[in-house]
């Protein structure tokens, strides 16, 4: 530094800057020299600021501060207040020896808010704001080429840092750390859009700024690439449903609220599910399997009728009825055959016109073929005849045949 | 008529055939995935491959669920072909209702950190009130669609609360193969966050495959 600059005024200016810095980071100080190692200490600062805000211009005495922080252990409270006082986050309202009323520093509280936001949203929100501000700067009619150059340099630095961090996470980090940190860093399309807009604005107003704008463009493109790479590595690693939590809940809510039926239906368009049917419980199935393995108990034949009159009586009673049925079935079968020796079932059913008729014919022919004393046979082959307009729309291939009665 | 896998089963001893058929019936007709403890054909790797081959003959595949449970589902190639021909798809409106239930019961709880295991099962119910008031689904058709989805086991009624009936994804989602589950996840991400880096990565990897 030039010795000429070492005036009392410049020293005072430096001190003022350092004082603001100290206030800003007071909430994170564990002693005047180093940062905290326990998040509880920030919670204590939060409680303290809330109490100061409620107290208004009255300020708080040391006892009131202690009462506001009664949820925290006394030694912690004492050391925190000491640090906050040393760094200027809590100051005496009036600088007099016997005054015990304190007020809190606005700068410290704002920095606490900032710290909290960085915790939940990472640096992305800040980058958004920075972009909005830079955009305003560039649109300002009074802005000069130097302003634009500085603005581009700030944006380039921010993007390069975020790219490096994401790149290190993607290439060398564990999946857990990537999962935790990447969503705070990676690209939302809006961010790239804003950055590109700022870049375009700068280039159109100051076309001679080729170098800074090229740097900025490269940084934005690198950011897009590394974001995609990080997301790709995560989706590959996390499994078949876990990537869902990488989108914020709000994005999902917006999707279901605003989408049309068609857009909602689209994600399931590539999947096939089973048709409804009677599903069984696993317990029932296991039980069925367990029982099937046991040998079935031997069945005993029912005792034969040994009474003579019963044995004599039976055929006499049954025969006439049997004959009547046989005659009836033979008549129907002959009607169907109409003089031929065989008839094609698919053809026959197809010509019947409606299902009830076809059904009756079918049952007659089956009964005739099954009857032991009638000379008919019904055989079914493989395959189906399908006709969308036919009644019924599908028919089995079979033949109804009159067989030669053995002499 | 003979079963398409008759020749595969014919090559086995009687006992092995019984075991394969028992396991086949269990995975095909069981509502929930079955535990391999009860089925020798699921425990034994060689028989399991035979079972897989038997299922393949009818266009199905054996699907492993976390732990030692198994079920069956459409084979990936068969699914792709059925979809290409437009066979067996759910009606559009039913799909929209189902997507909404998946988002409310699975995606949102996941974003909030309430679900951690890698499956489409969820204990967070979606109420009918949510479906009615927070979507653009036509109201008159909603009950019929829910009824159809229920009978297909795609959704299951959760314990009804004071807010009326509510549903969670049904056991049919266990029948999705890993590739089908991944496809569903990707399609949901593409639909809900088309501008997100996840969607970019998905489009990028699909472009690389083609």
UniProtKB/TrEMBL annotation, chain A:
It comes from the Bacteria. Residues 292-325 are annotated as: Disordered. This is DUF2397 family protein. It comes from Cryptosporangium phraense.
Automatic annotation (TrEMBL), chain B:
This is Uncharacterized protein. It comes from the Bacteria.
């Amino acid at each position: 530094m030039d010795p000429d600059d070492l005036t009392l005024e410049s020293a005072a200016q430096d001190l003022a800057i350092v004082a603001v810095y100290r206030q800003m980071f007071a909430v994170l100080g564990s002693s005047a020299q180093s940062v905290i190692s326990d998040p509880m200490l920030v919670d204590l600062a939060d409680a303290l600021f809330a109490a100061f805000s409620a107290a208004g211009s009255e300020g708080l005495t040391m006892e009131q501060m202690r009462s506001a922080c009664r949820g925290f252990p006394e030694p912690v409270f004492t050391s925190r207040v000491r640090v906050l006082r040393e760094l200027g986050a809590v100051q005496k309202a009036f600088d007099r020896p016997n005054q015990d009323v304190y007020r809190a520093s606005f700068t410290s509280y704002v920095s606490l808010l900032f710290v909290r936001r960085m915790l939940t949203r990472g640096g992305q929100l800040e980058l958004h704001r920075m972009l909005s501000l830079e955009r305003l700067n560039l649109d300002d009619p009074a802005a000069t080429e130097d302003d634009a150059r500085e603005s581009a340099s700030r944006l380039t630095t921010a993007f390069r840092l975020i790219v490096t961090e994401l790149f290190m996470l993607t290439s060398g980090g564990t999946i857990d750390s990537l999962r935790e940190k990447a969503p705070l860093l990676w690209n939302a399309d809006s961010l790239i859009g804003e950055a590109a807009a700022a870049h375009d604005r700068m280039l159109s107003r100051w076309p001679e700024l080729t170098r800074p704008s090229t740097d900025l463009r490269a940084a934005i493109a690198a950011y897009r690439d590394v974001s995609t790479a990080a997301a790709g590595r995560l989706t590959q690693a996390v499994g078949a449903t876990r990537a869902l939590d990488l989108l914020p809940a709000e994005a999902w809510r917006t999707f279901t609220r605003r989408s049309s039926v068609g857009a909602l239906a689209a994600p399931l368009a590539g999947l096939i599910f089973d048709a409804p049917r009677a599903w069984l419980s696993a317990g029932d199935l296991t039980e069925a399997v367990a029982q099937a393995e046991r040998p079935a108990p031997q069945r005993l034949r029912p005792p034969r009728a040994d009474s003579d009159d019963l044995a004599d009586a039976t055929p006499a009673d049954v025969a006439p009825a049997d004959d009547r049925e046989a005659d009836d079935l033979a008549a129907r079968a002959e009607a169907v055959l109409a003089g031929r020796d065989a008839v094609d079932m698919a053809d026959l059913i197809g010509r019947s016109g409606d299902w009830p008729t076809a059904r009756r014919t079918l049952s007659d022919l089956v009964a005739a073929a099954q009857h032991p004393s009638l000379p008919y046979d019904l055989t079914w082959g493989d395959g189906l005849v399908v006709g969308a307009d036919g009644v019924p729309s599908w028919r089995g291939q079979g033949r109804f045949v009159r067989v030669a009665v053995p002499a | 008529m003979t079963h398409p896998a008759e020749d595969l089963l014919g090559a086995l001893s009687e006992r092995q055939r019984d075991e394969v058929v028992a396991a086949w019936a269990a995975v095909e007709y069981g509502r929930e995935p079955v535990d391999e403890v009860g089925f020798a054909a699921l425990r034994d790797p060689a028989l399991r491959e035979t079972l897989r081959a038997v299922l393949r003959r009818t266009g199905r595949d054996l699907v492993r669920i976390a732990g030692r449970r198994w079920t069956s589902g459409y084979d990936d190639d068969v699914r792709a072909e059925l979809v290409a021909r437009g066979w067996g798809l759910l009606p559009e409106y039913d799909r929209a209702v189902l997507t909404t239930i998946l988002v409310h019961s699975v995606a949102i709880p996941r974003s909030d950190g309430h679900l951690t295991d890698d499956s489409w099962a969820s204990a967070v119910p979606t109420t009918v009130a949510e479906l009615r008031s927070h979507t653009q689904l036509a109201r008159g058709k909603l009950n019929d669609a829910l009824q159809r989805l229920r009978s297909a086991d795609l959704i299951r009624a959760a314990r009804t609360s004071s807010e009326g009936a509510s549903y969670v994804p049904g056991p049919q989602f266990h029948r999705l193969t890993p590739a089908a589950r991944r496809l569903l996840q990707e399609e949901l991400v593409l639909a809900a966050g088309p501008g997100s880096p996840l969607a970019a990565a998905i489009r990028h990897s699909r472009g690389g495959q083609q």
